[in-house]
Give the backbone structure.
Amino acid sequence: MSIRPRSPIMDAFKAIFLLTALCTGTGFALQCYTCTGQASNTNCMTATNCTAASTYCKTSVLSGGIGSLSAATISKSCESVCVATSLNVLVVSTSVSCCSTDLCNTSGATSIKSGYAILALCLGLFLTLIRNPSL
């Protein structure tokens, strides 16, 4: 039985392979802030290590209001697919924002709020109905 001498080149390749295998696991996973249905962005600052399949940090905001009364809910998550959207319907609005760097979904400020023109239109319609109940 003969023993082959160790090759320094083979040892270097083995070391590089081992380091690559260790580092490509969870070491490079995206980090996002996560929360579900919170009334304040302050409650949405929990940093989470996403799975390897997740490539986006998503922030969803649903808000609504009439005059000085308003409410909003914020949700943040790790996602493998994310489509940015924005929708206003009368006094309710929703938005989804997407980003792809660590902890990039810090703020819920990208949320949209119902436009003042729409609120004024609704208030005007309401006042018209009160003045003319026959309509």
Remarks:
- DSSP finds two helices and six strands in the chain.
